[in-house]
Amino acid sequence: xxxxxxxxxxxxxxxxxxxxxxxxxxxxxxxxxxxxxxxxxxxxxxxxxxxxxxxxxxxxxxxxxxxxxxxxxxxxxxxxxxxxxxxxxxxxxxxxxxxxxxxxxxxxxxxxxxxxxxxxxxxxxxxxxxxxxxxxxxxxxxxxxxxxxxxxxxxxxxxxxxxxxxxxxxxxxxxxxxxxxxxxxxxxxxxxxxxxxxxxxxxxxxxxxxxxxxxxxxxxxxxxxxxxxxxxxxxxxxxxxxxxxxxxxxxxxxxxxxxxxxxxxxxxxxxxxxxxxxxxxxxxxxxxxxxxxxxxxxxxxxxxxxxxxxxxxxxxxxxxxxxxxxxxxxxxxxxxxxxxxxxxxxxxxxxxxxxxxxxxxxxxxxx
Length: 367
Fold this sequence. Notes:
Layout: E1 3-4, E2 9-12, E3 15-18, E4 20-24, E5 27-33, E6 41-44, E7 46-51, E8 53-54, E9 57-58, H1 64-76, E10 79-87, H2 91-102, E11 113-114, E12 117-120, H3 142-149, E13 154-159, H4 166-175, E14 179-182, H5 189-198, E15 202-203, H6 219-226, E16 231-234, H7 243-252, E17 257-259, E18 272-276, E19 279-284, E20 287-289, E21 295-298, H8 302-311, H9 316-322, H10 325-330, E22 347-350, E23 356-361, E24 364-365
Parallel strand pairs: 2-6, 7-10, 10-11, 10-12, 12-13, 13-14, 14-15, 15-16, 16-17
Antiparallel strand pairs: 1-4, 2-3, 4-5, 6-22, 8-9, 18-19, 19-20, 20-21, 22-23, 23-24
Helix pairs in contact: 5-6, 8-9
């Protein structure tokens, strides 16, 4: 049975199309319908490619029941597809966690779909680890790549391109069908260019855990912003990146910014103590920090990041596109992160203030 969503506009492609949206049999039936609703925006279900935890659940340690809680909480907040992320940790524990995550399929009951796993580490620069445990950091080699990736449904890997063996790892991972992101890196512009030439396709949390952009040495950030083939992840949680730099990223890389939360178990929870893999973290004042006081992931929602980007001067359509279509495109997916007739009806309905009002997963209402 066909039903309308009662919205004033919808994000179709990279623009807001006036008119209502109809869904039927789990799919989008039509867009741009008259009469339009008085208010509200329909957008593709949001896609978050960097989720370390959510709703009190840490991805690295979660069992099946806890992961189900995480999936449902993400969907409630507008994220219909996501990539669970494992930070640097004990190799045996990382493999065990990757195996648990690989057992998930994309049909969690009324919860966000897992699109595969993101390994953020252990192949990171020692001077740009952030909160990643130094004890388990290492340079990549063929055996390590095969052990962590083979058979574990890994779709994203973050590594530093300047490390010994990193370019070979990029090529090996790409041959496995894994999308490589550069990050947690002290790379010069030359090293960044070499990483992209080897096959890397994106950057993890632009401006964070990398060398600053300088006049004569643009580093990883500068190279990424100027390459039309590179997607830049951005944590617009109000703590990781200044509003001016949020605006800069969108202006320099239109259509190539992927908003991410870098969410931890603290997301959606009250102030208190949580874990990020092996690292104890504390939520206070909206920010998640480690024992040294450094930022350690976030407590953000992806819809909140959209609102922050718009508050920084980014157009609404561009911000919503960055939280849905661009991350899906990074993963090579055209079945999520899009809203057009015939596609699966993963839809988030937002108020004009960009607050999540309703969520549909394959046309079914999420509580």
